[in-house]
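Lab notebook page, bench 4
Experiment: in silico fold of construct C2
Operator: M.H.
Input chain length: 132 residues
Purpose: comparison with the prior construct
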Amino acid sequence: MNVFPIFTDKKKANQIWERVIKWWEDPSIKIRFVEVNDDYWFVMGGNSPFPESNKSFFKVLKKSEHYERFKRGHEGQAYLRMGIYREKNESFPIDLFKKKKVVTDIKFLQESQVKDDELAWNCLYYNKSKKE
């Protein structure tokens, strides 16, 4: 299965890959799906030998059929690739990068479980406190 953050700007996606994700060591990449009511937080981070590239990403999304299918079928790993979304007439094609990473640290959590996961905890509570 694939996990692909989607961007509308190819240049920006390339910069993020080259400056951050490229340097993440595959075993260090973590993806968390934190369920909060009808939504989920997609949280992703990793470690590299270069501290400036140790960043994380998140997005709050609505639960969907695709999310549920991934949750049931990921079998403990996924390919991380970047996607470029282009609006074209009445279709919405997504181009995927050929470059990929293998992610094996994938967890699905309820909001009440994030206190036991450093990546999810830092993301949720930092961003929730910013809103308030």
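Observations: The chain is about 25% helix and 35% strand. The first helix runs from residue 10 to 19.
Next step: discuss at group meeting.
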